[in-house]
Amino acid sequence: xxIPIYTVDAxxxxxxxxxxxxxxxVDPEHxxxxxxxxxxxxEMNLSETVFLRNKEKNGSFSKGxxxxxxxxxPTNEVNLxxxxxxxxxxxxxxxxxxxxxxxxxxxxxxxxxxxKDGNGFVMNFPLNETIVQDKAEYHKLLELIVSVDCVETVxxxxxxxxxxxxxxxxxxxxxxxxxxxxxxxxxxxxVTGKVKGVIVTLKGSTENGAVSSDGETYDFISRxxxxxxxxxxxxxxxxxxxxxxxxxxxxxxxxTLFARQCSRRGGDVxxxxxxxxxxxxxxxxxxxxxxxxxxxx
Length: 297
Fold this sequence. Notes:
InterPro entries: Phenazine_PhzF-like. By secondary structure, the protein is an alpha+beta fold. The protein has helices at residues 34-44, 82-95, 139-143, 173-178, 183-189, 238-252; strands spanning 2-10, 19-26, 49-54, 66-72, 77-78, 102-107, 110-117, 120-126, 131-132, 151-157, 162-167, 197-203, 220-226, 231-234, 256-261, 267-274, 278-283, 285-296.
């Protein structure tokens, strides 16, 4: 069977930045096993590969508005992936010219709705709460990322298994970008399965260099490390921002937020915190450099 596949750079308006994802369009009559999907994701070797199916037996990717979505890293399936969902919407709208006002994705995290907004996309996701933690519990893990003296607070998001590490305000964007965590030792330091990813974040200011290329000050900046999911560092992470939006929205008393994930590729994310524990993640995706092809299985 031939399976159409695309790669798209998400959370960026500049080619070769943001976070690349692979999107496989699977016809209902093609019954891919979980093992086959995992092998395809490992072959692509991107942080996430999407497998998209129509909910309707005779549905069309170019006309339908309701789909099943699954996300795989090179090593395992995950419950939620923002950048790959954004990339999927970009394929449906920009490549296949789907006319739907919004598209719905059934996922392991429930129903996700994405709509087109000018040159970007709005993704309605769950807002994931954080709970304050004792820094001492994570001392060994933290020391592999940054000096504990530079850590303001540590919080944990149970729904996502993400640890949020806020740096002190004396830190700068340059220092955040210069961090070189010991990835293999991080995995050895956390073997309980409680933590699947670590967000390192810093409050934005003009003084610490957290300013966009357009001169707008970021509310916060971050990096994200998830070696437990086969991703040493993720370039731009939508699911991490469902956690960051909860934390920084509370700390800054803001409903609208603007942030940058400061990986080597990097990308910008806008957020709207909504009622009912939901958040809109807003971003762009580059489809002018999209790669197209087929997997033959």
